[in-house]
Structure formats: structure tokens, C-alpha cells
């Protein structure tokens, strides 16, 4: 066993010693890597783990668990359609610098019973509390409207998910939650955060990284379209001409 | 059967897309049009992003027109010189189309633009076709033959400088006229993913005054090369060509096209044309309603 590995093994033990009065979380996810393949129609991620209390003493009042799965941030432009001269066209716009491409949250009880508004805002708990960093000069009422529009759009696409009351806690120490990944997720580095909440206060938090990537053929196609556009275009043309010609040739035989 | 589209970033039911390609191919075989005017709106309706839909539909038109071009070449009903001029114009038009696409995309109005163009183009051409095919049907029923139209090009065409001989088309006109015509269709191909056969065929007949025999072959020739150029331009600029989507569409459409060609040989052309006119007007009306009705999605998100 090398030195690095030994240190890694020691780390949790050290943590236990240094914060003896605070509980700690030992989280894990069912998949550290999600691969998008030809038959990808979304996936279910299982986030689970253990709550380790100092000396194994559980508090009298049961604690709450919140898990948040977040995708890479995106800089987005949102447009709002309005009826102008009889037709619906894009009229107002707003820009946001950091809208998560994916956000899913599960909690052991409805969020408003677990934390207060302020704490929820600090930790971005719940889609309403996402901090999108607007970068355009809109009035705040307008921004709220756009944010509500974004949430509605992405909730229906399965990109923003809230599952209150779905975290199961067994014997006060083991927790598990299932979060759905939509087929429309983008590739990138995702984080799964777990919060242990006691009396409205976050007493412990832990993060696990998840990578979502395209694999094999899908990866190759996406890279080819981006990196070698000329060859990719040629391939598309060759495919079309070849198939059109082949169908004609086959049809002539009958 | 679900299949993930690597460029569009979503999964679709492969059989639905193949069937969609098949229906479009069937129509294109029956009527001798590319069918792009149906593919793009149907794909958008299915939930494919508009840019990916337009970019991938162009390659489907390529596939649908290949075997037609071979057939017409063998029969000698392609005016290659005219086709080359039209194609040159088409490629220039496609380049202009790229700039327009980017401009309207930056303004956030590309979807509206596509909608309006569809309504104007399909509505206008559909009306023209309906009027003419009804006249032809009436003539057929009453047994009276329509007076053959005098084949003449439009006076504006005659006013253009420099004249070339186009033997197969039976024309002695300025190449600028087909060049401009090619440009106009090239712009439409880039913006809408349509082949442009709709605009080309009537314009070649009534504006340029080409002989009927070489019109269809020559327009297919132009469509083949311009859709190829457009696919390439989409691959280079918007990077929105989805090969898996194109493949699925092609499987359906090349098969459908062959069946459609068989059907077209057994049905009177007058009936075919009125049917096509009805379909075109229907699509135009649907698009027009789409512009006027409150859309399902008020908000759109564009990732930068």
C-alpha cells in the first residue's frame, strides 16, 4: 500500500477525531460515471449513504437529509414571446450567467418544514432558490417572470426535478434517495451534494462527483461534428447520395 | 425502439422518424418534389430543435433526389448548362442564407422568420398550383383542351444583359436570370431545409420559359447539388447536422420515394397535382395558425 492510499484511508478517521462533536456524512452514488449510449433514454441515480454520529449517539429529534444533484452551469439567453401585430414573436429577453443545465433535489420532508427561506437560499435548496446571476438589465419583476418561465420549461423537460419527502432514512443512520436523469442531460461534471439538517441548521455536508459522458459511437459522432466539420459534412453527403443511389439501383431490379 | 441522437442531444423513437421519412419520401416520389417542406416542420413538431431539423432535412432531400437525377440524365432531360448556372446561384444563395440565419438567430427571430417564409412560400405556390390544376381538371371533364400557353420568358428576363444559348431548354437568355433564381432558392434551402423545387419548377416554366420536358430533370439536378452544399455549410457553421437523424430519415424516404414513383405512374397527373396543392395549402394554413395562436411555449432558452 502506498503512502497516498494510506492517507486517503486515514482521512475519514482523522475527521472523526477532529470533529468529534459533529455528525458526519458518508455519501455514495450508484454510478460515478453515466455513459450515454445509443439506447440512452435517461437513468435513475441512487444516492445513498450513512450518517455517522459521534459515539453513535443519535439525537432525540430525527435529522433531515437533503440531496441535490446539479449539472454544469450554462450561460443562457431567454426569450419571451408576445403577440405583436397579430403574430407571436420573441419580444423581451433576459440573460443569465449561471443557470444549471440540470438540477434535481430530494428531501426527507417537504423543504419548507426542513429549512427556512434564508438557509434554502444560501445552499440553493429547491429550484425556486437557484441563483441564476442575471447579466442583463431587466427589472426584478421581469427577472422573476423569466426565472419562473425557465423553471417551468425545464421541469417539463425533466431537467429540473424536485422530489420532496422521497429520501428514506432507515434507523436514523442510513439514507437513500432516487433521482431521475432525463435523456436530455448534457455531458459534463455533475455534483451530488448531501446535507444533514438538524433544527433548520445544516450540520454536515458532503459532495460526490459524477461524470456524464457520451461513449463509443455517440461520443465519436459528437466529437466529429465539432472537431472535423468538413469530413463530417462529407460523410453526411456521401451517406445521402449512397443511400439514394442504392435504393434506386435496388428498385430497378424489381 | 428508442435511439439517442448524438448531435441533437435527445432520444427519439427510431420507427417514428423512419415512418416520417417514409411518408415524405412517398410524397416526393409521387409528386417529384424533395419533400423538405414537410420534413422540417414535422421534425420540429416532434421536438427536434429547429436548427438540427433544418440542417438534417437538407441531406434527406439529397437522398430523395439522387435516383431521380440519374433517371433524368439517362433520358437526356437535364439541361446541364442551365443546371450548372442554377447550382452556382444556389451555392451563392446558401452562403447568403448562412449570414441571414446568423443575423436572425442573433436577433432571436429565426423561428418567426422560418414560420413567415413557410406561410408566404407555401401559400403562394399552393394557391397557384390549386388554380392551375382545377383549370386542368375542368378542361379534362368538359373535354375542352386548354389553349397551349405561349412559351415565352418574362420581359424582365429579356432585359438582362449578356446572352447564352441553353440548347436543351430551348432558350437564348442571359445567364443572370437563372443565377438569380438559383440564389433565391439557395437562400430558402439554407433557411428552411427545403429543396426549392416548389419555387424552381414554376419559375423555370413561367419566368424563364423553359421547355416542359427538361424542367423537372434540371430542377432535380440543381436541388441535388444545392442540398449537398447546404449540408456541408450547416456542418461547417451551425454544426447541427445529426447523422443518426439523417440516416433514419433517409432509410424511410429513399424507400418511400421508390414506392411513390410507382404510384405516380398509375394515377393521372391532374389528380396528383391537385392533391399536392391541397397538402401544400394545408401545411401553409397550419403554419399560419401557428404564428397567430398562442404558442405552447412562451419562453425559449438559448445556450451560449
UniProtKB/TrEMBL annotation, chain A:
<keyword id="KW-0732">Signal</keyword>
<feature type="signal peptide">
    <location>
        <begin position="1"/>
        <end position="23"/>
    </location>
</feature>
<keyword id="KW-1133">Transmembrane helix</keyword>
<keyword id="KW-0472">Membrane</keyword>
<dbReference type="InterPro" id="IPR019088">
    <property type="entry name" value="CHP02186-rel_TM"/>
</dbReference>
<protein>
    <submittedName>
        <fullName>Uncharacterized protein (TIGR02186 family)</fullName>
    </submittedName>
</protein>
<feature type="transmembrane region" description="Helical">
    <location>
        <begin position="230"/>
        <end position="251"/>
    </location>
</feature>
<dbReference type="Pfam" id="PF09608">
    <property type="entry name" value="Alph_Pro_TM"/>
</dbReference>
<keyword id="KW-0812">Transmembrane</keyword>
From TrEMBL, chain B:
<comment type="similarity">
    <text>Belongs to the 4-toluene sulfonate uptake permease (TSUP) (TC 2.A.102) family.</text>
</comment>
<feature type="transmembrane region" description="Helical">
    <location>
        <begin position="240"/>
        <end position="259"/>
    </location>
</feature>
<feature type="transmembrane region" description="Helical">
    <location>
        <begin position="44"/>
        <end position="70"/>
    </location>
</feature>
<keyword id="KW-0472">Membrane</keyword>
<feature type="transmembrane region" description="Helical">
    <location>
        <begin position="171"/>
        <end position="199"/>
    </location>
</feature>
<keyword id="KW-1133">Transmembrane helix</keyword>
<feature type="transmembrane region" description="Helical">
    <location>
        <begin position="12"/>
        <end position="38"/>
    </location>
</feature>
<feature type="transmembrane region" description="Helical">
    <location>
        <begin position="205"/>
        <end position="228"/>
    </location>
</feature>
<keyword id="KW-0812">Transmembrane</keyword>
<dbReference type="Pfam" id="PF01925">
    <property type="entry name" value="TauE"/>
</dbReference>
<feature type="transmembrane region" description="Helical">
    <location>
        <begin position="116"/>
        <end position="140"/>
    </location>
</feature>
<dbReference type="InterPro" id="IPR051598">
    <property type="entry name" value="TSUP/Inactive_protease-like"/>
</dbReference>
<keyword id="KW-1003">Cell membrane</keyword>
<feature type="transmembrane region" description="Helical">
    <location>
        <begin position="82"/>
        <end position="104"/>
    </location>
</feature>
<dbReference type="GO" id="GO:0005886">
    <property type="term" value="C:plasma membrane"/>
</dbReference>
<protein>
    <recommendedName>
        <fullName>Probable membrane transporter protein</fullName>
    </recommendedName>
</protein>
<feature type="transmembrane region" description="Helical">
    <location>
        <begin position="271"/>
        <end position="289"/>
    </location>
</feature>
<dbReference type="InterPro" id="IPR002781">
    <property type="entry name" value="TM_pro_TauE-like"/>
</dbReference>
Amino acid at each position: 500500500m502506498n503512502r497516498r492510499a494510506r492517507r486517503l484511508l486515514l482521512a475519514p478517521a482523522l475527521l472523526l477525531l477532529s470533529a468529534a462533536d459533529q455528525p458526519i456524512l458518508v455519501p455514495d452514488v450508484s454510478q460515478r460515471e453515466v455513459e450515454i449510449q445509443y439506447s440512452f433514454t435517461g437513468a435513475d441515480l441512487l444516492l445513498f449513504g450513512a450518517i455517522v454520529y459521534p459515539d453513535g449517539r443519535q439525537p432525540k429529534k430525527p435529522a433531515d437529509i437533503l440531496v441535490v444533484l446539479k449539472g454544469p452551469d450554462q450561460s443562457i439567453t431567454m426569450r419571451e414571446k408576445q403577440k405583436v401585430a397579430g403574430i407571436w414573436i420573441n419580444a423581451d429577453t433576459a440573460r443569465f450567467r449561471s443557470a444549471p443545465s440540470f438540477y434535481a433535489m430530494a428531501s426527507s420532508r417537504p423543504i419548507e418544514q426542513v429549512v427556512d427561506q434564508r438557509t434554502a437560499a444560501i445552499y440553493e435548496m429547491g429550484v425556486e432558490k437557484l441563483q441564476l446571476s442575471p447579466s442583463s438589465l431587466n427589472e426584478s419583476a421581469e427577472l422573476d417572470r423569466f426565472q419562473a418561465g425557465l423553471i417551468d420549461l425545464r421541469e417539463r423537460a425533466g431537467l429540473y426535478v424536485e422530489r420532496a419527502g422521497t429520501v428514506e432514512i432507515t434507523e436514523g443512520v442510513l439514507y437513500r434517495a432516487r433521482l431521475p436523469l432525463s435523456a436530455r442531460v448534457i455531458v459534463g461534471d455533475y455534483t451530488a451534494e448531501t446535507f444533514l439538517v438538524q433544527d433548520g441548521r445544516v450540520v454536515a455536508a458532503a459532495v460526490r462527483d459524477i461524470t456524464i459522458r457520451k461513449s463509443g459511437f455517440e461520443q465519436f459522432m459528437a466529437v466529429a461534428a465539432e472537431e472535423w466539420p468538413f469530413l463530417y459534412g462529407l460523410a453526411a453527403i456521401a451517406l445521402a447520395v449512397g443511400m439514394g443511389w442504392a435504393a434506386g439501383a435496388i428498385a430497378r431490379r424489381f | 425502439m428508442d435511439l439517442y441522437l448524438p448531435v441533437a442531444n435527445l432520444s427519439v423513437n427510431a420507427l417514428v422518424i423512419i415512418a416520417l421519412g417514409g411518408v415524405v419520401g412517398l410524397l416526393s416520389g409521387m409528386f417529384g418534389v424533395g419533400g423538405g417542406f414537410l420534413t422540417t416542420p414535422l421534425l420540429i413538431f416532434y421536438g427536434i430543435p429547429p436548427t438540427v431539423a433544418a440542417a438534417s432535412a437538407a441531406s434527406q432531400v439529397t437522398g430523395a433526389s439522387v435516383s431521380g437525377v440519374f433517371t433524368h440524365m439517362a433520358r437526356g432531360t437535364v439541361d446541364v448548362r442551365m443546371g450548372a448556372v442554377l447550382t452556382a446561384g444556389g451555392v451563392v444563395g446558401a452562403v447568403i442564407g448562412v449570414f441571414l440565419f446568423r443575423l436572425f438567430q442573433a436577433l432571436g427571430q429565426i423561428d418567426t422568420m422560418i414560420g413567415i417564409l413557410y406561410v408566404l412560400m407555401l401559400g403562394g405556390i399552393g394557391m397557384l398550383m390549386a388554380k392551375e390544376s382545377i383549370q386542368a381538371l375542368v378542361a379534362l371533364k368538359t373535354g375542352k383542351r386548354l389553349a397551349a400557353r405561349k412559351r415565352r420568358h418574362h420581359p424582365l428576363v429579356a432585359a438582362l444583359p449578356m446572352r447564352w444559348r441553353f440548347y436543351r431548354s430551348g432558350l437564348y437568355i442571359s445567364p443572370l436570370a437563372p443565377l438569380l433564381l438559383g440564389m433565391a432558392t439557395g437562400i430558402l434551402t439554407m433557411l428552411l431545409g427545403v429543396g426549392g423545387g416548389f419555387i424552381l419548377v414554376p419559375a423555370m416554366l413561367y419566368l424563364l420559359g423553359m421547355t416542359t420536358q427538361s424542367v423537372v430533370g434540371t430542377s432535380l439536378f440543381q436541388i441535388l447539388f444545392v442540398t449537398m452544399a447546404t449540408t456541408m455549410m450547416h456542418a461547417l457553421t451551425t454544426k447541427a447536422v445529426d447523422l443518426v437523424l439523417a440516416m433514419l430519415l433517409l432509410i424511410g424516404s429513399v424507400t418511400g420515394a421508390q414506392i411513390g414513383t410507382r404510384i405516380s405512374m398509375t394515377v393521372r397527373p391532374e389528380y396528383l397535382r391537385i392533391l399536392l396543392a391541397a397538402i401544400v395549402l394545408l401545411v401553409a394554413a397550419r403554419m399560419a395558425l401557428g404564428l397567430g395562436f398562442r404558442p405552447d411555449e412562451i419562453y425559449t432558452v438559448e445556450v451560449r
